[in-house]
# Entry
Amino acid sequence: MADPQDHENTRHFFDEPRNVKGVIYALYAVCTLVIALDLVIHRHATFKDGVFGQELWFGFYGVYGFVSCVVLVLVATQLRKVIMRGEDYYD
# Structure
């Protein structure tokens, strides 16, 4: 069996602040790329297709995805309060 102290002494990828900053910058780059692609990629949605007019706005899908993710996290934190059981519930 592995010694627990060996696990405590190992350094992981996100223990280095430089690596964390690198991941954050990579996420910024991906977000910028997605917004920039919105200028180039042609959308097939039109008003005659019965879609909402907001879908034709610049950056709509990026904003919609971000807001949806935030709402999902907020709902999940509230749902946790409802369904959470005590630590000794199954004992």
Residues 17-40 form the longest helix (24 residues). Residues 1-41 form one domain.
